């Protein structure tokens, strides 16, 4: 009788130890589920456009247009802009000679579009921003402190590569990195990358 009691006691002790061990493991598993890696959210605050072509031909008789929308991410010729597209155009370009290139407001009195939006540019950037800063630019808030008021200036082909600062009608600030110019061939144009605050 005593042997049976000892066996039952021993059996209960072993079962209790196993149960406690399992409970302890379950607690650890629950703890592991609770302690997770933080979720990495996309904090991108810039729109980036690469290899945007702006026509150097005032008549836009070739492939490239003189207008661009940072909302749609597309280039347009003046003839392609309708009432639906017009409010979305926020960048316009004029390049009449190798020494006079400039970005202009889409509603420019001489070369713009009637009822277009207003965009201000600093075409001749001195020390506010550099090509090197453009390459490193990853956050829209890094442009917040820039003061952008239209300088009514221009830049020559010989100054490339360079940056142009702008602020569109919605108050979004951006940088145009003018990389290259192509005046000879079937599609005279400048090629640029653009970064603008979302």
Quickly list its features.
alpha+beta; 28% strand; 20% helix; 198 residues; signal; five-stranded antiparallel β-sheet; 2 domains; four-stranded antiparallel β-sheet
Describe, in plain words, how this protein is organized in 3D.
With 198 residues, this protein is α+β, with helices and mostly antiparallel strands. It has 2 domains: 1-36; 46-197, no CATH class. The protein contains 2 helices and 9 strands. The protein has helices at residues 2-34, 131-136; strands at residues 46-55, 67-69, 74-76, 91-97, 100-104, 120-122, 162-167, 173-182, 189-197. A 5-stranded antiparallel sheet has the order 1-9-8-7-6, with no helix packed on it. A 4-stranded antiparallel sheet has the order 3-2-4-5, with no helix packed on it. The longest helix is centred in the first third of the chain and has 33 residues, at 2-34. It is globular. Keywords: Signal. Residues 1-23 form the signal peptide.
Strand order of the largest sheet: 1-9-8-7-6
- What ranges have pLDDT less than 50 throughout 5 or more consecutive residues? 22-31
The total of beta strands comes to 9
Output the helix-strand order.
Answer: HEEEEEEHEEE
Task: Calculate the terminal CA-CA distance, rounded to whole Å.
Answer: 83 Å
* Radius of gyration from the alpha-carbon trace, in angstroms: 31 Å
> What general form does the structure show?
globular
Main pleated sheet: 5 strands, antiparallel
Q: Which range does the strand content fall in? A: 25-35%
């Amino acid at each position: 009788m005593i042997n049976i009691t000892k066996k039952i006691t021993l059996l209960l002790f072993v079962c209790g130890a196993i149960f406690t061990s399992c409970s302890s493991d379950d607690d650890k598993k629950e703890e592991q589920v609770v302690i997770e890696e933080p979720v990495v959210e996309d904090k991108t605050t810039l729109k980036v456009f690469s290899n945007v072509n702006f026509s150097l031909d005032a008549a836009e008789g070739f492939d490239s247009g003189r207008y661009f929308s940072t909302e749609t991410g597309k280039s347009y010729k003046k003839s392609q802009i309708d009432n639906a597209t017009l409010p979305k155009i926020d960048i316009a370009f004029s390049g009449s000679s190798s020494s006079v290139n400039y970005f202009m407001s889409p509603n420019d009195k001489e070369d713009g579009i009637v009822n277009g939006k207003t965009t201000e540019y600093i075409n001749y950037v001195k020390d506010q921003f550099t090509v090197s800063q453009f390459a490193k630019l990853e956050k829209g808030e890094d442009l917040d402190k820039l003061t952008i008021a239209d300088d009514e200036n221009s830049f020559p082909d010989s100054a490339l590569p360079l940056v142009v600062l702008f602020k569109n009608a919605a108050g979004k600030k951006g940088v145009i990195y003018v990389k290259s110019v192509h005046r000879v061939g079937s599609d005279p144009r400048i090629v640029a990358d653009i970064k603008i605050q979302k």
